[in-house]
């Protein structure tokens, strides 16, 4: 895990250089990808509630549309942020009527999801202070109990917010496409085949996944 963070600071994993050396030693494809994209790094910023709220707002809409709705949502609470990220506060969201939330461009379903998310944080049903000592699956189970958060979203949270080193998101289209293009000459790849390829990356499967994303999109992913 990285150091403590604030809403505006960037935090990169302390294990990154070790992971790159491991991947380059164990996997010839990774050796090339690390060489090609080694200047870039995974990073996290922001608080857990804001990060998860943004993931809900962004579901099934374009990046531009999601950002516009997010900006209007922050505007309800007069939140000022250099990068329009927040933070969004649990109590702020809970005190606003659903109809008001709908007016910023949120669907009724997303309003329900956001309020359920806020309720889980407000009631202590998510144990943020315990996450550092909880294993990945325990955190995924806790997060997927929240309406609107599935396994993929929980895994992205583990990667981009908690910086967990060994996450393999087999439901991620980019991961499967990256394995197909880099290991199977573009042929279709099953989940079992993807898992077999990633065996060599452990205990840094997050980093292997990240470099495959970079092979498809050179710009660092932003969460």
TrEMBL record:
Keywords: DNA damage, DNA repair. It catalyses: Hydrolysis of alkylated DNA, releasing 3-methyladenine, 3-methylguanine, 7-methylguanine and 7-methyladenine. It comes from the Bacteria. GO terms for cellular component: protein-DNA complex. Coiled coil: none annotated. Pfam families: HhH-GPD. SMART domains: ENDO3c (SM00478). The lineage of its organism: Bacteria, Pseudomonadati, Pseudomonadota, Betaproteobacteria, Burkholderiales. Belongs to the alkylbase DNA glycosidase AlkA family. GO terms for biological process: base-excision repair, AP site formation; DNA alkylation repair. InterPro entries: Alkylbase_DNA_Glycosylase/TA, DNA_glycosylase, HhH-GPD_domain. GO terms for molecular function: alkylated DNA binding; DNA-3-methyladenine glycosylase activity; DNA-7-methylguanine glycosylase activity. This is DNA-3-methyladenine glycosylase II. Its EC number is 3.2.2.21. Residues 57-217 form the HhH-GPD domain.
């Amino acid at each position: 895990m990285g150091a403590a963070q604030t809403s505006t600071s960037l935090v990169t994993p302390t294990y990154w250089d070790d992971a790159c050396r491991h991947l380059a030693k164990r996997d010839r494809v990774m050796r090339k990808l690390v060489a090609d994209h080694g200047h870039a790094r995974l990073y996290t910023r922001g608080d857990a509630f804001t990060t998860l709220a943004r993931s809900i707002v962004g579901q099934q809409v374009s990046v531009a549309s999601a950002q516009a709705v997010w900006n209007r949502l922050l505007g309800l609470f007069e939140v000022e942020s250099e990068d329009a990220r927040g933070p969004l506060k649990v109590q702020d969201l809970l005190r606003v009527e659903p109809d008001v939330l709908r007016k910023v461009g949120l669907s009724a379903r997303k309003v329900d999801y956001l309020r359920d998310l806020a309720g889980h944080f407000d009631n202590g049903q998510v144990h943020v202070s315990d996450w550092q000592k909880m294993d990945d699956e325990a955190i995924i189970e806790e997060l997927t109990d929240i309406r609107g958060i599935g396994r993929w979203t929980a895994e992205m949270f583990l990667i981009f917010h908690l910086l967990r080193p060994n996450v393999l998101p087999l439901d991620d289209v980019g991961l499967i496409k990256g394995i197909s293009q880099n290991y199977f000459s573009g042929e279709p790849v099953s989940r079992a085949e993807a898992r077999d390829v990633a065996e060599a990356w452990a205990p840094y499967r997050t980093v292997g996944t990240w470099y495959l994303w970079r092979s498809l999109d050179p710009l660092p992913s932003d969460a």
